[in-house]
Amino acid sequence: MTKLLLSLHVLAAIVAVGPVTVAASMFPPAARRAAPADGTDPGPHAAGTVELLHRICRVYAGLGVLVPVLGLATGLAMGVLGDAWLIASVVLTAMAAGTLIALVLPRQEELVAQVTERRLVDHRGTVQLAMFTGVFNLLWATVTVLMIVRPGSTTGA
């Protein structure tokens, strides 16, 4: 049962978190291209690209709930819920989720509205969004490393 839970946990992380990290990273430059500061025409698909990237982030963020749920089930099955590396991972996962929900997705929504209404996109807003997205991605990368290295584990890794 542990191997099944661990496999589902890893698959959920790849399938759910992977697309969010990529789409969120692609969003700020896509928003800048969709509403160029020089007033040039961004092309017919620019707004659609921004909307699609935001939709990917929103949908896969919802699916991402499976990752900690399956992770906690796996930790319970392995008997490691009290281990420091797992507690740190849970805290970092909560921070990543909070960053995505409170800082990334709302700013994406604001930029989608600016782009679809053909308003000028504030460069500072896209830079700030890129920074929050980087923090989100760094938190997930740290959790991934903790899951692989598991300090103090008996696996020898």
Relevant terms:
157 residues; mainly alpha; DUF2269 family protein
Could you tell me the mean pLDDT?
91
Give the strand tally: 0
Give the N-terminus to C-terminus distance in angstroms. 22 Å
Radius of gyration: 18 Å
Low-confidence stretches are: none
Shape: elongated
**Which series of helices and strands comes N to C?**
HHHHH
Number of helices: 5
Q: What is the structural class?
A: mainly alpha
Percentage of residues in helical conformation:
over 70%
Question: What kind of sheet is the major sheet?
Answer: none
Strand content: under 5%
Please provide a written account of the structure.
The chain has 157 residues and is an all-alpha fold. Helix content is 79%, strand content 0%. It contains 5 helices and no strands. The chain has helices spanning 2-34, 46-63, 66-78, 84-116, 123-149. Helix 1 packs parallel to helix 4 (84-116), helix 1 (2-34) runs antiparallel to helix 5 (123-149) and helix 2 packs antiparallel against helix 4 (84-116). It starts with a helix and ends in an 8-residue tail after the last helix.
List the helices and strands and how they pair.
Layout: H1 2-34, H2 46-63, H3 66-78, H4 84-116, H5 123-149
Question: Could you give a short description of this structure?
Answer:
The protein has 157 residues and is mostly helical. It contains five helices and no strands.
